[in-house]
Amino acid sequence: MHKDLETILFNEEQLAEMVTRLGREITRDYAGEEIYAVGILKGAVLFYADLVRAIDLPVTLDFMQLSSYGSGTDSSGDVQILLDLAKSVAGRNILLVEDIVDSGLSMHYLMENFRHRKAKSVKLCSLLSKPSRRKVAVQLDYCGAEVPDAFLVGYGLDYDQKYRNLPYLGVLKPEVYEK
Ligand code: 5GP
Ligand code: MG
Ligand code: MG
Q1: End-to-end CA gap in the chain
Q2: pTM for the structure as a whole
Q3: Which cofactors are required for activity (predicted)?
Q4: Which of 51, 52, 61, 124 has the smallest count of CB within 10 Å of its CB?
Q5: DSSP string, 104-144
């Protein structure tokens, strides 16, 4: 385990099981359809790469990036689109793929935004959810696991752009971001 972590929450095997289960649910629910999978940069990238391989249907890959927390650990609630989709969403089944829903502000903003585009459907798949931190309700159509209120890193999730490449997901020692 990395020295800056307090504990490992999900190891590689547990993450793989989560992804397999989500891929199976999505494959079942969208049977006969095509999916336009929208990965939210950068946190969801590792999860996204594994998830699309666990979906046994035609999938088109695209990405969006929203304004981030900077180097802090709390959301400002002031969301902006930094990078938009390459193609129009009209008539497509949009599956948003996110790393973690915390306050819910980012995904709430994005779901509202998608309601104004003419997508055929819009659903949300998040690897993780922190229900105790929610400020606004968000419908999570697919969720890997609910997690406690701690600052997590690894498997795509960063602190100050670090730790994304850890193959497992764990709790960052508070002393790392409190200093
Ligand atoms: P929300 O808008 O739901 O508050 O924030 C969602 C975003 O905040 C996530 O996509 C993620 O980038 C970041 N975030 C929320 N909780 C954590 C966490 O525990 N660790 C990390 N690294 N990022 C988090
Ligand atoms: Mg994210
Ligand atoms: Mg981040």
Answers
A1: 21
A2: 0.94
A3: Mg(2+)
A4: 61
A5: SHHHHHHHHHHHTTT-SEEEEEEEEE-GGG-SS----SEEE
Which residue type, as a one-letter code, is found at position 135?
K
Please give the ipTM for the structure prediction. 0.97
**Separation in Å, CA 139 to CA 5, 81, 143, 144, 162:** 30, 20, 10, 14, 29
**Could you report the per-residue pLDDT of 139-150, keeping only the tens digit for each?**
999 999 999 999
Cα 28 to middle of ligand 3, angstroms = 31
Residue 98 near ligand 1, beta carbon < 6 Å: yes
* HSE, side-chain direction, 13 A CA sphere, residue 127: 30
Instruction: At 147, list the tokens.
Output: 């997690």
